[in-house]
Amino acid sequence: MIKGLDFDDVLLVPNYSHFESRRDVSTVTRLGQYEFFVPVISANMDTITGVAMAKAISRVGGLPIRGASVDVLSVGAGGGSIARIDAGGALRVGPESAGADPGPAFYGRGREPTVTDAQVVLGRITPEHFLGGRMNVRPDLSRSAIGDLSTPYGGDATAAAAAVLRVVNAGMERALRVVSVERGHDPSASGGFTLVAFGGAGPLHACELAASLRLSRVLVPLYPGVLSALGIAAAPITKDLSAAALLTIPADGDGWRDAERTLSRLAAKLERQGAKELRRENLPLPPRERAGVRVSRFLEMRYVGQSYELAVPADSSSAAGRELAPASFLPTFHALHQERYSHSDPARTTEVVNLRVRLTVATSAMEMPRLAPSRDDPLLGHREVWFPSPSKGEGRGEGAVNGPARAAVYDRS
Fold first, then answer.
1. What confidence tens digit (pLDDT) does each residue in 321-363 have?
2. What is the CATH number of domain 237-361?
3. pLDDT in the model for residue 61
4. Domain parsing of the chain, residue ranges
5. pLDDT at 8 over 50
6. Residues 231, 213: Cα–Cα separation, whole Å
7. pLDDT tier, 223 (very low <50, low <70, confident <90, very high otherwise)
């Protein structure tokens, strides 16, 4: 059974993602996840740790966009990303993409070399089983397209394909480091993170990325290629509203009662507006009670003098319904600031810039078919697959090597 998680689950619950069901995932992973997916044109990465992941200002392609959003980092690298040799002789991959039409040369319509074509040349995609064998594909065109890149590699198409994957994986690795190391998370911490790979080609990159980040666990969910679509289908119905607050909150408690009253009035106004809009859209909102609706509040806060905010959940777990009292949300803000920026100052005056309210209407859980046990031979066949393999030479010590390797020494190999 898949039950969609909403934005608040992402903010408040460890191990949950923002647009797919993570209830099943969280039973097999430990606290914290990196996740990424490789659709046609981009890869998305984020870190799920149980702390707030919303941000008021996002960047897409390096351009700032002001508006509440889930903190997800995207890179222009995916299965359709086009590989080329630039004027300086360097191999580049993306951000240009072949998309779905014409798509990779493998699809039989395009001629540009892409990441998917590199995977085909290395044997990691089996043509006869692609899309369940229902799609006519052209591995010969993949080899021809990648061959056009092979001059710097001595005409070796396999070496060119391996280089394409090294370049695209390097971009994904940088993005994963941005959402981990640069935010104070140690990827290799014992019992720490699991790399969750989904999307049509995400699992093909997962092991090499995990090795680069020294992650010990990789999880590929069931139906990874359509996991995002499943998440959208299962997600609850929500209505988001926000309003400027612009309240100064002194650390000494002065004016706290007035601030609480102002925020409470503003929240009530937004909730009434949201309920009205939900009813206007003929959504299943109870007419006189909130039994089927979940109301969540978030404060966009900062220290006075800062130009960026943190989204602070003001949930209903506070005592006596005082979630909008500064005494309730200030400790949360300081803790989040410490987690994100490695410093905080409880004695410093803060500001509430905006108040956001989200109304969530629960939807029915999706019943997913279970995989029936089968006695059929799961082996589909044999094929050659290329993976990087380190070599261990004479006099290099007795250290362990991860993965398959060759040992070339005096009396044996």
1. 557 889 989 999 999 999 888 899 999 999 999 999 888 887 7
2. 3.30.1490
3. 57
4. 7-73+168-234, 237-361
5. no
6. 27
7. confident
